Amino acid sequence: MKIKFGKVKSNQILRLVLLASFIAISIVLQVFATYIRIGEYSPALALVPIAISAILLGPVAGCITGGFWGLYILIFDPTCATFFQYSWIGTVIVVLGKGMLAGLASGWMNKWLKRYNIYLGMCIAAIIAPLANSLTFRIGEIVFFLPLLGGWSKALTILISLFSISFLIEIGISIVLSPVVCRICILGDSQLNLGVFTEAELKSRAEIKYEAYSKAINIEAKTMIDMAGKEIIPAVISYTTELANSVLSVKEAGADASVQADILTEVSGYLKEMKAASAKLAETVATAATFEGKAQAEYFRDTVKVAMDELRAPVDKAEMIVDKEFWPFPSYSELLFEV
After folding, report:
1. Which of 216, 224, 178 is nearest to 52 (CA)?
2. In angstroms, what is the C-alpha Rg of the chain?
3. How many C-beta atoms lie closer than 10 Å to residue 287's C-beta?
4. Cβ atoms of residues 83 and 105 within 8 Å
5. Rounded CA gap, 236 and 335, in Å?
6. Nearest to 210 by CA among 284, 296, 303
7. What pLDDT score was predicted for residue 115?
């Protein structure tokens, strides 16, 4: 009997790879954070990749990243030993829960707010992660470890300690890095199409890029037509006129003018190609104005750009022959060594 396995989509593989990467980054940052002690605890630097995973891949991915981060703390952080001896169930719930809730809260906040403003959603999602992490931890201390920490008389102190230096550092890092988080998420989504933007937002961004591309090629094409018509073609005409006079003078003197005649024929051929290519380019640029959006960008790429290359080819060949006294623009060697 043959077992048929369904094909795993490349997007799903990409998501799994990114999720594994965010988990690894969060653990590496946690290892680094163990060398930074503020009072009893270390700042949770791993909350940044947790927030990014939640924004890029969704609340569940943020929850999984936060869960693995909490699992690492549970296994390797020595401060968990005391709590574990008192209540192992409470320790597991609090340590795993604070990371998982941080990822969930970040992802949910981004999904809710991006309907109104995507940048606001990502910034708040980055900031909400340390808040959810610290709040869950402090509430967990009250629920599971209050007798160990001094009873109900210490409950208010525990809640006030939510705003400890460690927490303020975590919030500060998230606020400072929130623009970076936005940039990473926008870049990641534009390159990998992970679903940060809605379909309408993606279409809008694509239209802007199509328009920018079309404008850039249009400007370059019109500049090329202007340079060819007003500078290069007149210069080549002047050079061919000089060559023609040279051929006549040499022949009148009774000498061999075959070299001048060959160069004249070659340059005249390039001149004819330039004129035809320039006219064709002007025509394609005019036609491009009849299109819009993606169709226009594709026309510039497939037709106008090809016509530009066709004009440049004879110009580049003529540049190698025409006397520099006639050529209207400096050569590469002049730009490099003489300007």
Report:
1. 178
2. 34
3. 12
4. no
5. 21
6. 296
7. 75
For residue 38, the cross-strand partners are 41
Residues 5 and 24: their CA atoms lie apart, in Å, by 29
Q: Is the pLDDT of residue 114 over 60?
A: yes
Separation of alpha carbons 306 and 285, rounded Å: 11
pLDDT of residue 251: 84
User: Mean pLDDT over all residues of the chain?
Assistant: 80
| 202 contacts: CB under 8 Å, gap ≥ 6 | 193
The alpha carbon of residue 315 and the mean position of all alpha carbons in its chain are separated, in whole angstroms, by: 36
41 SS3 class: strand
- Let me know: does 91 contact 84? Beta carbons within 8 Å: yes
Outline where 44-164 has alpha helix (H): 47-57, 59-76, 80-86, 88-113, 118-149, 155-160
The residues that bridge with 41 in the sheet, in sequence order, are 38
Residue 102: name the closest of 174, 42, 180, 21 by CA: 174
Write out the two tokens for 40: 């009893």
